[in-house]
Amino acid sequence: MLDLRGIRHHFNGHLAVDGLSLHVERGSCFGLLGPNGAGKTTSIRIGVGLLKPDEGSVSVDGRGAPTDPEVRRLIGLAPQSLAIYDDLSARENLLFFANLYGLSRGDGAHRADELLERVGLTERARDRVSGFSGGMQRRLNLAVALVHKPMLLLLDEPTVGVDPQSRNAIFDLVREIKGEGVTIVYTTHYMEEAQKLCDVVAIVDRGRTMAVDSVAALVAQHGGDSVVRVTSGEGVREVSTDTPMPELQKAMQDTTTTAIEIKPPDLERVFLNLTGRSLRD
Ligand SMILES: Nc1ncnc2c1ncn2[C@@H]1O[C@H](COP(=O)(O)OP(=O)(O)O)[C@@H](O)[C@H]1O
Ligand SMILES: [Mg+2]
Prior knowledge:
CATH architecture of the largest domain: 3-Layer(aba) Sandwich
Structural class: alpha/beta
Number of strands: 12
Bound molecules: adenosine-5'-diphosphate, magnesium ion
C-alpha cells in the first residue's frame, strides 16, 4: 500500500533520513518506532508527498507518487503538529475539510456528524477548538484525517500530550479503522503503543531502519534474555538469563526474599540492543 525506497533527506546539511526503505502491506498497521529526532516525521511527510526527498522514491498502492492529486486523495494524514483551526468549532473544521475534498454539503454534514460521534465530540461539536483539551484536539485532528475516507491513514504521534481517556479512545478508534480495512502507519516513541497496535514495526534511529518485523519476531531475534530481579536481605539482584527457573528456585529458597520479578525482553530492549540507546531519550 505504501512503498518508500532508499529515501534520503537533508535539512541544511543535517541528514534527517538516511536511506530509509519501507514496505507497508495493504490492510496492516505498520509502526514506526524511534526516539525523538529519529526521522519519523520527515519520513511521514515524504510518504504523503508534503516533502520532496533528496533521493529515493515513494509509491502508493502501486499507483505512483503521492504528489499526484489522484494518489494524494487515497491518503489521510493526522500530523504531529495539529492541523485544525482554533477559531472554528469542531464541526466547522470537519465541514471545511469535507468541502476541500469535494464532498457535497449534505455528504459533508453527514460525514462530520458521524466522525464527531466516533471521536466522542458530539456534545462539543459547536464549541470552538481553542477551548478544547489536548486530547480533544488530537481526536479532532484524527477525525479530520478521515473525512474523505482514505485507504491509507498516517498517524504521526497521535497520542502526544493526551490524557489517558483520550488515549484509550484513540487506540480503540485506530483498531476499529483497521478492522474496516484501512492501512495504517503509526509513528510513536511509546513502545507500549507499537506493541499493542502494530502488526509490523520498523525500529528507526538516526534516519535509518534498524530492523523491521512483527513485535514477536523482533523480540525473539533481538530482545536477548529475560531478566530475573530478586529483592532479598542482600538487596536487589538482577540476573539476565534465558533459563530463569534455577534463579527463581534459588530466590524462593532464600527466606529473606521479599519480591521476585521476571522481566521478559520487550521492544525497549530490542531498541537498546540494536542501537545502544534508549527509546526514551
Ligand atoms: N524543518 C526542519 N528543518 C531543519 N531540521 C529539521 C526539520 N525537520 C526535522 N529536522 C531535523 O531532522 C531530524 C529528524 O526530525 P524528525 O523527522 O522530526 O524526527 P522524529 O519525528 O522522529 O522526532 C531531527 O534532527 C530534526 O531536528
Ligand atoms: Mg516526529
